[in-house]
């Protein structure tokens, strides 16, 4: 073997030894009955959460646990489920004594008409699609995305963007959309009716939908009306812009 080939072989071996070894994934998959309009709750820590609606009165929970380091850490992170015909709650539980580097990614299917009491993760994306729902979506370090939904969904994150595309915005309790470091995009159909309560510090606001301002307030803090007005949408950012746009296939 030439000197150059020997050097390459040594470098390749060193890279292989230095690279983190990912443990074999552990899959959790179960299905639980849940009536249409029932309540679903999920809390996670490290990993993304994807929720989508389907035409069945049941919840399908598909989770993949992945450990960075010791494979035995997989068993130390539990997925606890509490299920009844009108409420399904899923919780990721980590050991209290010390940290383990385990990531859990969820892909959930719920009845299309559902109450999302709380869908939350700390480090990861929260994405909800194709549901008729009310509820609360939360991340800390990650985006929150909502696509092809109707109802009233609030969304919160600290370091991430919010993107909500609503086919219909129903009347009801105030919707709250807030992030600290990130942008907010809210897409609504033409002809929507809502009251906006907007606050931003280091960002701007733009709206494609006709907006009537209430008073001569600066664009960083104001109240306004879309269409004929209606239920309130509170929109808050610290570092990031706010966009209200007309829902269309290209958004």
Topology of helices and strands:
Elements: H1 3-18, E1 26-33, E2 39-43, E3 49-54, E4 58-67, H2 73-76, E5 78-84, E6 87-93, E7 102-111, E8 113-120, E9 126-129, E10 132-138, E11 144-156, E12 162-169, E13 175-178, E14 184-188, E15 194-202, E16 205-207, E17 211-213, E18 221-226, E19 232-239, E20 242-246
Parallel strand pairs: 2-6, 2-8, 3-7, 3-9, 8-10, 9-11, 10-11, 11-12, 11-13, 12-14, 13-19, 14-20, 15-19, 16-20
Antiparallel strand pairs: 1-4, 4-7, 5-6, 15-18, 17-18
Overall description:
This protein folds into 2 domains: 21-130, no CATH class; 143-251, no CATH class. It is built from 2 helices and 20 strands. It is globular, with a radius of gyration of 22 Å. The termini are far apart. It has helices at 3-18, 73-76; strands at 26-33, 39-43, 49-54, 58-67, 78-84, 87-93, 102-111, 113-120, 126-129, 132-138, 144-156, 162-169, 175-178, 184-188, 194-202, 205-207, 211-213, 221-226, 232-239, 242-246. The model is unreliable at 4-22 (pLDDT under 50). It has a 20-stranded mixed β-sheet that branches. The chain is mainly beta and 251 residues long.
């Amino acid at each position: 073997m030439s000197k150059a080939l020997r050097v390459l072989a040594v470098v390749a071996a060193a890279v292989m030894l230095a690279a983190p070894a990912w443990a074999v994934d552990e899959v959790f998959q179960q299905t639980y009955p849940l009536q249409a309009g029932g309540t679903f709750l999920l809390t996670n820590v490290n990993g993304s959460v994807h929720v989508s609606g389907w035409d069945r009165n049941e919840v399908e929970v598909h989770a993949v646990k992945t450990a960075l380091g010791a494979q035995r850490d997989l068993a130390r992170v539990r997925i606890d489920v509490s299920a009844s015909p009108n409420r399904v709650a899923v919780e990721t539980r980590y050991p209290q004594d010390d940290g383990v580097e385990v990531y859990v990614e969820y892909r959930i299917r719920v009845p299309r008409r559902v109450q999302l009491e709380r869908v939350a993760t700390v480090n990861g994306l929260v994405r909800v699609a194709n549901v008729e729902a009310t509820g609360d979506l939360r991340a800390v370090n990650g985006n929150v995305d909502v696509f092809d939904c109707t109802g009233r969904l609030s969304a919160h994150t600290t370091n991430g963007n919010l993107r909500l595309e609503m086919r219909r915005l129903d009347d009801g309790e105030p919707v709250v959309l807030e992030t600290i470091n990130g942008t907010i995009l809210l897409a609504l159909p033409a002809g929507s009716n809502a009251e906006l309560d907007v606050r931003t510090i280091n960002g701007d606001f733009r709206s494609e939908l006709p907006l009537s301002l209430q008073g001569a307030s600066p664009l960083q803090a104001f109240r306004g009306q879309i269409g004929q007005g209606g239920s309130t949408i509170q929109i808050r950012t610290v570092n990031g812009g706010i966009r209200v746009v007309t829902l269309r296939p290209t958004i």
